Amino acid sequence: MNLKAFIRDIDNFPQEGVIFKDITPLLADAKAMQYTLDRLLEMVGDVKIDKVVGMESRGFFFAPLLAQRLNAGFIPVRKPGKLPAEKTSQTYDLEYGTDTLEIHSDAILTGEKILVHDDVLATGGTAKATCDLIKRLGGEIVQCNFLIELDFLKGRSKLGETDVKALLNY
Known about the structure:
- This is Adenine phosphoribosyltransferase.
- Keywords: Cytoplasm, Glycosyltransferase, Purine salvage, Transferase.
- Catalyzes a salvage reaction resulting in the formation of AMP, that is energically less costly than de novo synthesis.
- This protein is an alpha/beta fold.
- It is built from four helices and nine strands.
- It has one domain: Rossmann fold.
- The longest helix is centred in the first third of the chain and has 15 residues.
């Protein structure tokens, strides 16, 4: 199946000069979604995963499905003010300014094997901040797993020695 046929380019969104990779056509097609989930799982292989961490918000589409199929828990990483219990925060740099991500402080136990999933790896800031949170809580990142990687932005370079896999590359 040609998954790129289900990815729509939106020019100048969310700002001028950006070509946004819209995955909603893929999400609207049951066969494309199932095919995508199966391919994302193949990228993980037979490695034991204890928790799947998904980033707000588009990482929430496939991360819980991956967790369910891997017999693992799902952990959301959110923007500030969205999680109700004690949190651990990580601030990171954006092109113009900073942003912050949060995770529940009790979400990951020391030594747990973690799969990180998001829809797109772009500049790598969100993925690196998420990995930093996981490491601070004692988790061991097995893989960072993405639906799409925008190669020209070189986001994987921020993830060091972490195993990074993407289903589609642009």
